[in-house]
């Protein structure tokens, strides 16, 4: 746009007024949003005046007619953010019994996705969460930790933590199907990610953290859990 403004000015100065007027006509359409106070535009004011154009010689572009049909707003999602439905799952636990999201219907549950017993930070995460299990229970929240380990290897996280057991269920997802369903998975690198999810009693995700490192701020999460679950449904 600015090179064209320079061209118009030069053509006008050298006497090629017809050509200058033609190029100026193009500039009027291109400069619809231009600032007329900048020097390169200011010096075109006398040219516009001699051509009989207004001081604001810019031309607004025609409204496009090819924007397509506007879909009904109700098809574009809710007006306000709403917690989304959590994906159900069925996974074996360390004792061989299946655990499903459906079995927590009517009760909030905290899900911790961790990368198996070989992840030291994950073991530390579970150790940090264990002492708060009772306080989460007082808030009405149960806890399930979902691992990339196979079912026979789930107890290895307990061994690495140096404890007799964890006060919550450990579930096996070695194929990472649930990790993918809950988007705790990097599809580009093809690796699972750490994830922490708070699901309310209606099966909706109220809070989540997905990251390359495990979430450990459980005191904060406990307070946030109480706040979120106290909000109107």
Account of the 3D structure:
- The chain has helices spanning about 1-15, 15-30, 40, 45-50, 120-130, 135-140, 155-160, 175-180, 220-230; strands at about 85, 90, 100, 110-115, 140-145, 170, 185, 190, 195-200, 205-210.
- The protein is α+β, with helices and mostly antiparallel strands.
- The protein folds into two domains: about 1-50; about 85-230, Glutaredoxin (3-Layer(aba) Sandwich), CATH 3.40.30.
- Strands 1-10-9-4-5-6 form a six-stranded mixed β-sheet.
- The longest helix is centred in the N-terminal third of the chain and has 14 residues, at about 15-30.
- It is elongated and about 95 Å long.
- About 25% of the residues are buried.
- The mean pLDDT is about 95.
Keywords:
six-stranded mixed beta sheet; 2 domains; elongated; two-stranded antiparallel sheet; about 20% strand; alpha+beta; about 230 residues; Glutaredoxin
> What's the helix-strand series?
HHHHEEEEHHEHEHEEEEH
Instruction: Note the total helix count.
Output: 9
CATH topology of the largest domain: Glutaredoxin
CATH architecture call of the largest domain: 3-Layer(aba) Sandwich
Quaternary class: single chain
Summarize the structure.
By secondary structure, the chain is α+β, with helices and mostly antiparallel strands. The chain is built from 9 helices and 10 strands.
Produce the secondary structure layout.
Elements: H1 2-13, H2 17-30, H3 39-42, H4 45-50, E1 84-85, E2 90-92, E3 98-100, E4 109-114, H5 120-129, H6 133-138, E5 142-147, H7 155-161, E6 169-172, H8 177-181, E7 185-186, E8 191-192, E9 194-199, E10 204-211, H9 218-229
Parallel strand pairs: 4-5, 5-6
Antiparallel strand pairs: 1-10, 2-3, 4-9, 7-8, 9-10
Helix pairs in contact: 1-2, 5-7
């Amino acid at each position: 746009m600015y090179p064209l403004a320079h061209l118009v000015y030069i053509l006008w100065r050298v006497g090629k007024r017809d050509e200058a007027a033609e190029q100026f006509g193009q500039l009027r359409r291109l400069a619809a949003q231009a600032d007329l106070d900048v020097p390169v535009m200011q010096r075109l004011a006398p040219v516009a005046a001699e051509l009989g154009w207004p001081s604001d010689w810019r031309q607004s572009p025609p409204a496009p007619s090819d924007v397509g049909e506007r879909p009904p707003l109700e098809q574009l999602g809710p007006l306000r953010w709403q917690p989304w439905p959590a994906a159900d799952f069925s996974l074996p636990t360390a004792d061989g019994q299946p655990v499903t999201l459906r079995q927590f219907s009517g009760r909030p549950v905290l899900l911790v996705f961790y990368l198996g017993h070989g992840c030291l930070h994950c073991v530390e995460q579970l150790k940090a969460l264990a002492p708060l299990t009772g306080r989460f229970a007082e808030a009405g929240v149960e806890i399930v930790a979902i691992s990339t380990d196979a079912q026979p290897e789930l107890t290895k996280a307990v061994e690495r933590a140096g404890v007799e057991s964890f006060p919550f269920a450990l579930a096996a997802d070695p194929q990472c199907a649930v990790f993918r369903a809950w988007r705790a998975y990097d599809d580009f690198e093809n690796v699972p990610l750490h994830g922490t999810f708070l699901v309310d009693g209606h099966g909706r995700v109220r809070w989540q953290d997905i990251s390359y490192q495990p979430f450990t701020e459980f005191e904060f999460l406990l307070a946030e859990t109480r706040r979120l679950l106290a909000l109107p449904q």
